[in-house]
Amino acid sequence: MMFKVGKPVTGNDFFDRTKMITDVRRLIVDRQDFMMKAPRRYGKTSLIKHVLLDSKDPYLYLDLRRESRMENIAEQIIDFVFTQAGISGFFRRMKEGIAKFMINAKHEVTIKTEIFEYSVEFFSDEKKKPCELLIKALETAEQIATELNRHFIIIFDEFQDVSRFICEGNVLEMMRGTIQHHEHITYAFLGSIEHLMTDIFENKKSPFYNYCRKLKLPAFDIIELAPQLEMTFKKRQIIFEDSLDLMSVLQRLFGHPTNTMLVMQHIYYSALDKEIRLVTKQMIDNAYESAFNEVHDLIEQYVHELKGKKHHYDVLCRLARNEEQILTAQALNQVYKGLIEMGYIAHIKRGEYILNDGFLVEYAKGFNT
């Protein structure tokens, strides 16, 4: 499939991001923990999975938004690290019968037997509390990595959701106190609700303050992206009538990764359906409108969220339309701060801001009517 949309992409389906890919690879090689934040639908998961494609180190990807219980996260960590130690299906086999599991697994495990035996004893105790299980899982992961002299990578996606889990203490404080001593595991923390990620990693009162490197995933660099797209189409014997038309629509999309790939997909499918090898400006405009209509309901969800905050939608609309703002400087700065934290705008330089989503700009300008 060309220009995948809606799920992580890697390999030949991955575009742009040269500098960020280099930075993330270096951090992983140097075993430096890091966080990465970006607006929704900006491709954080795709980037990290793309980087890890050629990694020789085993990694575990955890999406906290998809998990309902902290116990599930602990179980995935334990299953992952014991697989590296030669024992697959740790929790499944333990639930099928502890005695049989312990006898058979002793011949499979490649680490000290006492580590395995204690882990079975600990994680089979139904009285253990959720946070207790998570912290022990992280400690066991480092212990096994050390025993094997291996380097593991653990990715927590949508990490800002960690605080919603039931925990008998401050989960951030407990995690920080544990993982800060780990030398054989690199941790990556990804998040799409930027103000929550900022609060976790940049608030002086947070246990994770100044803990790791902080990265912000930017929009596509359209100067780098445009020739990549043209080459991708050209490999399918499809060319653009005018390269400036492609550049124009990329600028109109504000470099938004998902929206850009959606428009490109519409162009590609249109060319296939009509057996056309030359992409005209009209085809590009039609693809843009089709893509906008496809995400219209999502944009309206954003608008509903914005309207729930005083002045936020009005300020955003005026910014999109390049109209003069009417709030006082102090009130306006507060709203700008809120819009940045919500992931809708970015601060370019002193007094200048830009929206992150070109479709939201179009909506604000009345393109939806």
Characterization of this structure:
- With 369 residues, the protein is an alpha/beta fold.
- It folds into 3 domains: 15-216, 3-Layer(aba) Sandwich (Rossmann fold); 222-294; 304-365, no CATH class.
- It has helices at residues 18-29, 44-52, 70-84, 90-96, 98-105, 113-123, 130-148, 171-179, 194-202, 222-234, 243-252, 257-273, 281-294, 296-307, 312-320, 329-341, 358-365; strands at 34-37, 59-63, 152-157, 185-191, 213-216, 239-240, 278-279, 345-349, 352-355.
- Helix 1 packs across helix 2, helix 7 (130-148) packs parallel to helix 8 (171-179) and helix 10 packs across helix 11.
- The longest helix is centred in the middle third of the chain and has 19 residues, at 130-148.
- The two termini are 32 Å apart.
Chart the SSEs and their pairings:
Layout: H1 18-29, E1 34-37, H2 44-52, E2 59-63, H3 70-84, H4 90-96, H5 98-105, H6 113-123, H7 130-148, E3 152-157, H8 171-179, E4 185-191, H9 194-202, E5 213-216, H10 222-234, E6 239-240, H11 243-252, H12 257-273, E7 278-279, H13 281-294, H14 296-307, H15 312-320, H16 329-341, E8 345-349, E9 352-355, H17 358-365
